[in-house]
Amino acid sequence: MNASLLWLWGHWDSIYQRCTRLQYVDKGNNIFRIVLLRYRGEPLVTSDEHMICPGDLIVKLHIHNYYFATLCKGVKDELRLVLLLRRHIMQSMPKMTAYLEKLERWEEVKGIVGTTMLHKGVEPLGFSISDVPMNWFFRYKRWYLRLMLRIIHPDGKGRVQRLKQDMPLKRVYMSKEQLLYRYGSGAHQPTGEGL
Fold first, then answer.
1. Where does the source fall among the domains of life (predicted)?
2. How far apart are CA 133 and CA 29, in angstroms?
């Protein structure tokens, strides 16, 4: 990736972070940023049969794309890129859970929800997947995430053009109970089996 482009992105990212109220889980050491908000989508049923309904307090999950781009600098192989992302997600989930458990309003939270094109392989991590409505907001978000992929991926432009129809935007989500079961301090099972 071009160094000056990465430098510009870093400045844009700091502005974006302030405008969106995103909180760092552990700046420079965790791939996630989060924000507490009220859920506004359709009702969701998680893999462990819990409900996330409109108006429920959720943790909105964001992959810190700029941070990941800095980690990928110089990586030319797609497989290495995928493995790097997987490793950082696996390392970040328990630390993010520990961070969330200390939030002032944690007792009110029903689950975690994110929107991503990187949804393949997330079910073994405990996430459920659903479609998002293609309104103006999600159309913009899909455009933005495709732009990020073009910048981060070693063959970004070609990848986006080849997979244009196979890159739908999806909602990924997990109940608070499932999150604690898998990634909390007393986690009951290994994480990420089957990836």
1. Bacteria
2. 33
Q: What pTM, to 2 d.p., does this model score?
A: 0.77
- What are 136's two structure tokens? 């103006």
User: What residue numbers bound the domain in which 160 lies?
Assistant: 3-183
Total structural domains within the chain: 1
In a domain, 85, yes or no: yes
Identify the bridge partners of residue 24 per DSSP, sorted by sequence position: 33
The answer to whether the beta carbons of residues 73 and 153 sit under 8 Å apart is no
Q: What is the pLDDT of residues 1-22, one digit of tens each?
A: 556 666 666 666 677 777 778 8
Q: Does residue 191 form part of some domain?
A: no
pLDDT, tens only, 145-195: 666 666 665 554 554 455 555 567 889 999 999 999 999 987 665 555 444
d(CA 12, CA 93): 26
In a domain, 128, yes or no: yes
What CATH number does the domain containing 133 carry? 3.40.630
